[in-house]
Design brief:
This protein is about 30% helix and about 5% strand. The chain is mainly α. It has a domain at about 1-50. A two-stranded antiparallel ribbon has the order 1-2. The chain is elongated and about 65 Å long. It starts with a helix and ends in a 26-residue tail after the last strand.
Length: about 110
């Protein structure tokens, strides 16, 4: 099926689909958020249009699952008299390779 489909889509069509998924309309596609649901609906529609069928007897490509979601509790912290606010002065990237066991210099950029 895939070999049949690869001849039916142009680079321009693929680019347009990627632009749609990456657009602000999809609101970042974060798990459990509205943008994620919009992207899932869009992809399900595109799969149906391409002739794919869901694997199970259901008529949906979507599979429900449970997950835990948490927002950062720490919104700001202080270093001496300097107050730093999350998403303004710093971001947290816990799964980055520098986040464990690496000492890094802090650079303050901006006002």
């Amino acid at each position: 099926m895939i070999s049949k489909l690869q001849d039916q889509i142009s680079k321009l069509e693929l680019l347009e689909q990627l632009k749609t998924l990456a657009s602000d309309t999809m609101e970042g596609r974060e798990t459990g958020k509205k943008g994620n649901q919009l992207a899932a609906k869009y992809l399900s529609q595109k799969l149906s249009e391409a002739g794919f069928k869901p694997l199970d007897s259901d008529t949906s490509f979507l599979q429900p699952f449970e997950f835990l979601s948490d927002d950062w509790i720490l919104q700001e912290f202080r270093i001496g008299d300097l107050k730093l606010t999350i998403d303004q002065d710093y971001v947290i990237v816990p799964w980055h390779s520098f986040s464990v066991g690496t000492l890094c210099q802090i650079y303050l950029v901006g006002s």
